[in-house]
Amino acid sequence: MSTRDLSRRDFMKTTGVAGAGLVVGFHIPWMQGCAGPPPVPVEGGAQPNAYIRIDPAGFIHIVYDDHEMGQGSSTGFLMMACDELEADWSKLVMEEVPTDPSNWHTGISTGGSTTIRLGWIPVRTAAAQAREVLREAAARRWEVDLAECVAKEHKITHEPSGRSAGYGELAEEAALLPVSEDPPLKPHEDFWLIGHSTDRLDLPDKVVGKTQFGMDLRLPGMVFASVSRPPAFQGGIRSFDDTAARQVSGVLDVFEVEGGIAVVASDTWSALKGREALVVDWDPGPNADQSSETLKARGVALENEPGDVVGDEIGNFASAFAAAPRKVEVAYDTHFLDHVPMEPLNATAWVQGDRVEVWCPTQGATAGQRMAARVAGVPTENVIFHSMLSGGGFGRRLNPDDTEFAVKVAMNVDGPVQVVWTREDTFAHGFYRPYTHQTMKAGLDADGWPVAWLHRVYGQGGGTSTGGASNPPYAFPNFRCDAHMDNWGIPIGPWRSVGNTHTCFAVESFMDECAHAAGINPVTYRRRLMEPKNPRLLNCLLTAAELAGYGKEMGERQGQGVAAWMCFGGYGAMVAEVTVADDGSVAVDRVVAVMDHGTIVNPEAVRSQIEGGIVLSLTATLKAEVHIANGAAVESNFHDHPLLTIGEMPLVEVHFVESTERPGGVGEPPIPPPVPAVCNAIFAATGVRIRELPVDKELL
Questions:
Q1: Span 8-200: which CATH code?
Q2: CATH fold group of domain 215-285+345-420
Q3: What is the pTM of this model?
């Protein structure tokens, strides 16, 4: 990760670093390997997109471009630097991300559980470079042997004489020295902060309401707007009457923008009331006949047709399946899901001639900046983009449509304008987790073991729809994964864990069905198929089964289910215990999770991610879905798209595998396993297989 082709002066100018001190720039690859193996650092000449600066007062300023949205990654990032640098934790400062993403050498985007695992080597290397050059500066100042100078507790100490100098004192001298290209990194046994639960730096201000989220922004002269958009996907506006809307107190203007009708007012409430007063004749557009039922019918019709997208193929599935003495064939359905971030989408924009300024809580600042430039018709470098903290993302805030409509409105307003989406807007105009119809086929030998395995996905979303399915955790001699990719005109996007959220449900449910068809314990069945291919996941599986007491005696209409999965560099197995009431209601009583994330930087933050992931996953399993009717989303708020409540929360036991492997992803891996684990537990309790989500209690 060389920075030799960018001078210190150029780097400071590019990154906006001001003030004296030691600056070490480094490069973090952009979203490389986010769904596959550990990322490979970019070799040779990589331009810096992050930096560590030590000022003369001894404070250590760190800038990197990932977006904090509640996952705690910013604290973990600082922990890695602090430990490697042997710094005082109280002197670490996280700087704001740059306001000109186009000048940041790589795109600014956060997703794929990448922050810690992509930064693991680069940030520690940069911190080690700073540490070593500070040691060199001290050795030169005192004219002593470098080996006698030790970095510890935010200072360099000459051990024979006891002399010491703080990092701030040495920063200017160190800045004049070349940094090592390959500084020694600390071994795991020397970590004193990494691996220890540390309070998140962002929480105190959030708890007392001091943190400013996107909706909290207030600027002099700012007005507010709400945009009424066609209810149907790709719908339009035939005509509208704004007479009543203009009479609402506080409404300043009403006008049409591409894709909607904007109501501008002195406050958000007035904008919303003015919008309610609009009389609009909507054009339903080309998708008026789309419905959840029509999509499923198309998927069913293609069950036996080879997919046009082939994820992977081993051996010859067709011939092996035809020759197999026993066959199991099942289909599974998952429906659209909204991301439901707690903070509704919002953005503030100010267009001043050929200059645009945007404030937006987003996972994708680069995409937002480019969208603003495209809408306003200005060069990208003319857009100043402020990434605000966001109240949840889960993949939804990767799409820049919040910025798009804010800029469209701002082009018609003299001054800054904040456009806030209602919860109903968020549901009606989401980028949903896509619907899927998944066909599973297995040919079993005389002993019940699979000799042929097919996973066929019907859906929308390209290669991401087969995520996890094309490389399952099991070894099959004859295997095929393919997909039929349709285009429904319904917006879709990455939902936490992306394709794995539906493929794991199908694979792990079907694996359970095959095990029962063979008369073999589901854990034993998985073990034999997983052992030659995935020892880390197998360890999670066996440990989870042991800790949960898998196979123990359960009460009437109670059951245990197991599932294991790997994605985004993380491995995990879960055992769920459920009770099914006489009316079919399902209560998840306990979830035992064993997770292998490699080296864990901040255990408590990771534990929170696992627990939160299980909540989201159980919501998708038991409660939530988005239906399509007449080319539009049916569900509109939490009354018909409910979330798991506190009273429904099971006992969750999270166990980590101790590891010195490089960190794996954390945000995505806990999402897939709970779904099939719960469904398999329901089967154990009732004898009824769940093949469509969410669970329909009428079947139980």
A1: 3.30.365.10
A2: Aldehyde Oxidoreductase; domain 4 (3.30.365)
A3: 0.93
